[in-house]
Amino acid sequence: MRTAEEMKAWEIQAYGMTAENLDAELAEQRERMARHGLRQLDPSEDGELAWQSQRLALIASLLSDAQEEMGHPDQLSARGSNRARQKMNVAKRMIFDLRDDMDALNLVGGDHG
């Protein structure tokens, strides 16, 4: 089992920030979207379905950014490669979080174990 410090170090190398900071950034993004009328886009009381849709757009954007950074191998630095890897890790985490949230909302079925 990893210690808290080991987990924090792993998160920073994987995401470029701690999971706590990543969660805070996503929460801030959601609040920004809510202030700009996100709740009006969705019939549910809390705009949850619209937020899930926006998360998909954020995931696609992260993957596109990573793809662009990796798209020029002759210009790819170790730093750029690491940044692209971190963006892909953030996108993967967001996909798993989205799946879990959609399960909780009964929007997807089946066992994902």
- Count of separate structural domains: 1
Approximate helicity band:
over 70%
Secondary-structure-based class equals mainly alpha
**Shape category:** globular
Annotation field: number of helices = 5
Number of extended strands: 0
Mean pLDDT: 83
Largest sheet: none
Radius of gyration: 16 Å
Distance between the termini: 21 Å
Q: How would you describe what is shown here?
A:
This protein is mainly alpha-helical and 113 residues long. The chain has one domain. 73% of the residues lie in helices and 0% in strands. The chain is built from 5 helices and no strands. It has helices at residues 4-15, 19-35, 38-41, 48-70, 78-104.
In short:
By secondary structure, the chain is mainly alpha-helical. Helices cover 73% and strands 0% of the residues.
Question: What is the element layout, followed by pairings?
Answer:
Layout: H1 4-15, H2 19-35, H3 38-41, H4 48-70, H5 78-104
Helix pairs in contact: 4-5
Keywords:
113 residues; mainly alpha; globular; 73% helix
